[in-house]
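Data availability (excerpt). The following record was deposited with the supplementary files.
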Amino acid sequence: MNAHKFSSCSDFPRSRPSRRQLLQVGGLGILGLSLPDLLRAEGRGGHKARAKSVIFLHQFGGPSCQDTFDMKPDAPDMIRGEFKPIASRVPGIQVCERLPNVARIMDKVTLVRSLRHEMKNHNSAGYYSLTGYAPPTDDQRLRDTQDLFPAYGSVVDALSPARAGTPTFVSFPYLIADGSVTPGQSASFLGKAHDPLFIGQDPNGPDFRLPELSLPDNLTAARLGDRRAMMRLVDEQSALLEFSARARGIDENYDKALNMLTSSAVKKAFDLSAEPEAVRDRYGRTTYGQSCLLARRLVEAGAKFVNVYFAKDIGGCDSGGWDTHGFGGKPMYPILKRRLLPVTDQTLPALLEDLDERGLLDDTLVVWVGEFGRSPKINAMAGRDHWPQCYTGLLAGGGVKRGFVYGASDKTGAYPASDPVRPEDLSATMFHLLGVDPKTQIKDALNRPLPISTGSVIEGVLA
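Predicted structure:
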């Protein structure tokens, strides 16, 4: 029985399926998908996709909304903090004084100031943020297992993959972790065939490149039709295996590996040296800056979901993420001033303006969000603690409003005052904008049908 139910004949698409779609149906049975599901996911017989791609900028550690996009200048000292708000290009929308370039591009974005959930640990909250599914428990010891839901990009790869020769889902430059690897970065029960193309190198490094399989002189792409021959070739060339731990599933990724071997578009996308020096400087000569530039090049090449991780570690120092507790004599504000806010202020506007200037922003959805926010009250160590009860996310392009604020927090930024939004609502909105029905079902490791999102589309942010 098909996992997706249809209540009437009108649920079925009226257009005739292509040969490609018919061939895909057999392979989709393992996902619990029928031909009507496939057609719906591709925008046939359903709503039209507003976004061709998503760039998901994951701010590991959790930024403080009170120090970035939802400041509280009238609150007491220990809540409002050191920074003052400044006006942005949009009347009535203020941001932190340390984000003057971001203030300039606020006419391109929607701020969601009422995100909330209950997970207070990085691994459980990170999994929630990266999949749209609440974990079974709020436990820092949460591990990646086949029982947990797949990453957004893996779902997109299963339901609406990119054209042949282009990876659907790419992630870089880290596997994020807090003690153990944070779940939600892989395909889980969908299988390794839908894992991301993971790039574990620094795009800001002088030797950054995409390792490639090279064909022996006596073996052409046309002859490389034997799976065993392909496996021998991969075994002989370890660069791809060293390049990505995900390549251990190469047997299931045979077609992808073959496409990488023969596609010039992928190689070109990873060649950052082709960019003018001024463009690279504009994004910032940092790992994050060059990662965001790579994300732009990948969506230009046809990738559909790109995860860029701001930092490998949760933070608390000048090389980590946004976890600014003030532990270990590392107060929050010096780190915000030296690294977190300057990097954000350079790279985020560069990405959005570059996409807009190239005519890509209208069909590229950019999502900037952490796994949670920070506590309204500054603690005794001059930092802010974990706070999932209310935080801010930023959306731009891909069918969302420009120069808009959705939802509101209370006077201290502690709880939503209106229009609360949960991670599953954000996931439903992303799938909807990509033209994939959020109610589409896939089957887990126990063959149980699950919707790809349990949330509701945030209608108020749609353009």
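Summary of structural features: Residues 1-46 form one domain.
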